[in-house]
Amino acid sequence: MRILTKGFDLNAFFAHVSAAAKRALLLDYDGTLAPFVLDPRQAAPYPGVLVALEDLGAAGHTRLVIVSGRWTRDLLPLLKLRARPEIWGVHGRERLMPDGRYEIEEVPEATLEVLETADAWAERLAALGARLERKPASIAFHWRGQPEPQIASIRRELERRWASFAGSTELGLHEFDGGMELRALGRDKGAVVRTLAAECGEGGVIAYLGDDHTDEDAFRAVPESGAAALVRETFRPTTAQLWLKPPDELVTFLRRWTVARSGP
Description:
Number of strands: 13
Distance between the termini: 27 Å
Shape: globular
CATH superfamily of the largest domain: HAD superfamily/HAD-like
């Protein structure tokens, strides 16, 4: 583990976790708990991660939350945990509770109309090698595994078509690790962090672990008493306080969190 923020004390942080009245551990999935693969349906967690999460869940002292850009229904088959965690999907637009309660934020009709227009780009972009992923309130165009010249062509085509929506206040075009996403504005992973921090209240502690540029909103939203950790095999500039290399350092962090608790 590498400390990235001057003055951040990992031992003091875990002492805070131990003494906290409430704890919430927020985890991105792709690239954080699981390595990237060409077929997202096969994105199994890193070795040791499921066991570490099972142990953390069994300890019963932490609110375990998955925060993903994916549709929640696509994550469920991959989270082979005995007790289902809370899941926020589509960058915080969906919320699925462990007891099955489900909420989704509605998208304005005008935004849906623009997304329908963008859906017509699919054939051209598929011809360039992109894979289309449709989700509530967004369309993602994946290029993972394609050679650099094709990636450059896909990016240019997306930016060219996006230019026709210049000035739109309903949508944003966001690049992520392996593609670009046209997404309705108004929700991001930072909003999830702020919501859960408020629900934990004073005396609570939150940590967020993520890998991608879409996780930076969450890193910035973590309260001063919490921790933000970049989980990647290779470093990139980030606002996170820690850098964890998966899987070993990730599993070590999860296990340390499990034992850092108040009471017997």
